[in-house]
Design a protein that fits this description.
This protein has an eight-stranded mixed sheet with strand order 3-4-2-1-9-10-5-8, sandwiched between helices. It has five helices and eleven strands. It has about 200 residues and is α/β, with parallel strands linked by helices. The protein has two domains: about 60 residues, no CATH class; about 130 residues, Nucleoside Triphosphate Pyrophosphohydrolase (Alpha-Beta Complex), CATH 3.90.79. Strand 1 and strand 2 form a beta hairpin.
Length: about 200
């Protein structure tokens, strides 16, 4: 299954209709589902949640992503020994630290670097890959499909320094019982990650 966010809207590509939302395409009985043509215009104009039900979600996703400029990013879900998680406040919304891969950089290295840069911490223990998210957005008249690899991390640093030049105005360790304030003012893709922790 693939879940792709377009602003606060979402496109789900899966084999089974496990959703009550509107079905955009249903080609589950078509073994040639890779030939399904999904236009960029159809994707970027989705409202709410739409579903594509097909025999081969990976083939459909691969066909879809050929229509966009691909960007790889990585970030961290950082936890301390008090079971608090590290959040940033950027451009008026709560978020998790993440960023694009530099040329020649792997996902793990980028995840650590981005958390360090955005939160001003140096000591991070990298854990397992936790989640993959996909996000489509427009930038400089180009439509981007960004894949973000999210890693579990540990850190005990208390002296957080937000990266102001990246629009980050606050960094905070928050306990699970404080997540509601984050969920009220975050992105749908970040909310999905947070919900996995609850």
């Amino acid at each position: 299954m693939y879940k792709i966010y377009i602003n606060q809207n979402v496109l789900v590509i899966s084999q089974l209709d496990n959703f009550s939302q509107e079905v955009l395409h249903n080609v589950a009985n078509n073994s040639e589902s890779a030939a399904l043509t999904i236009s960029k215009e159809e994707i970027i104009n989705i409202t709410g949640q739409k579903n594509i039900i097909c025999a081969n979600p990976t083939a459909v996703f691969n066909q879809l992503k050929q229509q966009f400029t691909l960007i790889n990013a990585a970030g961290g879900l950082v936890k301390n020994s008090q079971s608090e998680y590290l959040f940033i406040f950027r451009r008026g919304k709560w978020d998790l630290p993440k960023g694009k891969l530099d040329e020649g950089e792997d996902f793990e290295t980028a995840a650590i670097r981005e958390v360090q840069e955005e939160c001003g911490i140096t000591h991070i223990e990298l854990g397992d890959l936790y989640h993959l998210s996909y996000h489509i957005y427009e930038e400089n008249n180009d439509w981007i499909l960004k894949q973000t690899n999210w890693y579990l991390m540990k850190s005990e640093e208390k002296n957080l320094i937000p990266q102001l030049e990246e629009g980050i105005t606050q960094t905070a360790w928050l306990a699970i019982n404080q997540f509601e304030k984050v969920r009220e003012n975050t992105y749908a893709s970040i909310d999905e990650i947070i919900c996995k922790l609850l």
